[in-house]
Amino acid sequence: MTPARAAFGLFLAFLVAAPFALPEFYVTLMNYIGLAALVTLGLVLLTGVAGLMSFGQQAFVGIGAYATGVLTTVYAVSPWLSLPAGLALTGLAALGIGAITVRLSGHYLPISTIAWGIALYFVFGNLEILGRYNGLQGVPPITVGGWTVDSGRDSYVLIWVATLAALVAARNLLDSRSGRAVRALRFRGTMAESFGVDTARLKLVVFLYAALLAALSGWLYAHFLRFVSPGPFNVNAGIEYLFMAVVGGASSVWGAVVGASVLTMLKEWLKDILPALFEQSGNYEVIVFGVLMVALLHRTSAGLMPAFARLVPTSRREARPREAAPLARRERPRAGEPLLDVRAAHKQFGGLVAVSHLSFDMKSGEILGLIGPNGAGKSTMFNLITGVLAADDGEILFRGERIDRLPSRDIARRGIGRTFQHVNLVGAMSVLENVAIGAHLRGRHGSVASILRLDRAEEARLRAEAARQVERAGLGEHLLDAAGSLPLGQQRLVEIARALAADPVLLLLDEPAAGLRYREKQALAALLRGLREEGISILLVEHDMDFVMGLVDRLVVMDFGEKLAEGLPQEIQRNPAVIEAYLGGIE
Ligand code: ADP
Ligand code: MG
């Protein structure tokens, strides 16, 4: 047994023993911890993993609690029907808010969640049917078969079963095709889109998931307390949940339990001592929380979870993928077919013309070099072809179809794979997982399937494919290393492997040989020739002229956004304008 498993076993043993061994007061405290951990877990995914901040989770808890409160007390509906009703209502609210705010970057989401939280608090407090500020009394207990969940110890069972299930679900989700995409959202959205991930939709899914967990917590809460009032859904509560996520460590699902435990216990304790200290009552704990969070963030932004994890000497690494049936491959165009046709593409950044009405084309099976001095517009051209940037003018056709108005994920779907000049990897993820993001469009299972682990066969195939491409790029021994731990040159090779995992027809490589040693460059050149043999066409930006000249079929030379020359490598090397503008500058 690994130490991590042992620690998990110990935690489970504690959970099982707690209701028998602990006095009532602590069982109740554990209930509050479980309820808070559910909400916090949603925030961990939303904030820690996906990078979206919400101060409004308490409002979703409130919807879950009030929905069941009203339905069970006023309409005498069974709690087992009010649960789906509350989840549905929360889901609608979350989709509504999310659709408006999740796409907006910066502070829009946090601010709108605060506004939403405040608004809903007043709705809870002012609606007649919700009992105004007095709330709803007499919420019935939940019954499961013949078992009535009416004591703190009974509620404990229900709350912690739900919490553990949510933790397992979250772990399953993160360890999947969708999970890899979610983990790329925070810092690598552009890259994820370039491999077919619909990042806006995915953010909405995470927002929805977090809201549903909060609503579940609200449902449990209402039936545990047997009473619902607006107080616990005040804005304060939303801030506390965020504290819990940050304190626990916003990027580990277990951090949710740690954060919820630490802050719930601390709050209980502070509630006793602070009013005595200040000699009047008030919510002083919020101030203390704030100070603690600032102090904690000052020392580490990773929260307490890493410190807890260090107590357990883990050797946890993902397993090397097992062999699996290869994924279906795309049909390749015949050699010589028109592949890419760039017609007078134009891109300006303010007054700076980065690409100036540039035209060139590529036939299938070709390696075309795109060269030019720094700032010539080569990377911008890549971004126009892949839809990362929209062209101001001109047309770009791929296999006869216009692609210049498509979002980059749709261009990726058509078989264009790319690398980025500024390496665009998720540093904390393994090389294997980074490359597997490239194969995103070759899988189809979504978040629900991965939570239920229905995606395992496909996942094995995706991982096996990723492993094959990593081997092929010569990085087999680094398969399970964090991508960020490799030297920059090798990170570029990871980028190539990731692009290959997408099974591209056309591969766009932006300075792939930069930072490689002589031997590695030779291996890369051999790899690229092999790809051409297989029918993959390559558009190559590279500064190493020996590398380029020995490899490409044809060259396009750019300078100041314009096409300076085009032709065979020998012609280009003799072209006086090119020598003047570019090659001469190097020698
Ligand atoms: P290259 O890849 O050939 O070195 P780039 O395409 O990166 O050149 O850049 C071309 C020009 O466009 C440069 O002058 C660069 O500063 C400018 N540029 C590139 N991207 C942006 C951007 N996002 N905003 C403003 N200017 C940009
Ligand atoms: Mg560049």
Provide the number of structural domains: 3
What is the overall shape? elongated
The percent range for strand residues is 5-15%
- Give helix % range: 55-70%
Can you identify the CATH class of the largest domain? Mainly Alpha
Side by side, the strands of the main sheet go: 8-9-10-5-11-12
CATH architecture of the largest domain: Orthogonal Bundle
Through-space gap between termini: 61 Å
Mean pLDDT: 91
Structure, briefly:
The protein has 587 residues and is an alpha/beta fold. It has helices at 3-21, 24-49, 57-73, 79-101, 108-126, 152-174, 177-194, 199-225, 235-248, 253-278, 284-299, 305-311, 378-385, 408-413, 431-438, 447-451, 456-472, 488-501, 518-533, 545-549, 569-574, 576-586, and strands at 142-144, 147-149, 338-349, 352-363, 367-371, 393-398, 401-402, 416-418, 506-510, 537-541, 554-559, 562-567.
Explain the overall architecture.
This protein is an alpha/beta fold. It folds into 3 domains: 3-16 and 25-311, ABC transporter involved in vitamin B12 uptake, BtuC (Orthogonal Bundle); 332-415 and 504-587, Rossmann fold (3-Layer(aba) Sandwich); 428-503, no CATH class. It contains 22 helices and 12 strands. It has helices spanning 3-21, 24-49, 57-73, 79-101, 108-126, 152-174, 177-194, 199-225, 235-248, 253-278, 284-299, 305-311, 378-385, 408-413, 431-438, 447-451, 456-472, 488-501, 518-533, 545-549, 569-574, 576-586, and strands at 142-144, 147-149, 338-349, 352-363, 367-371, 393-398, 401-402, 416-418, 506-510, 537-541, 554-559, 562-567. It has a 6-stranded mixed β-sheet with strand order 8-9-10-5-11-12, with helices on both faces. α19 links the parallel β9 (506-510) and β10 (537-541). α2 (24-49) runs antiparallel to α8, α3 (57-73) packs parallel to α5 (108-126) and α15 (431-438) crosses α17. It is elongated. The N and C termini lie far apart (61 Å). Residues 378-379, 421, 510 line the site of magnesium ion.
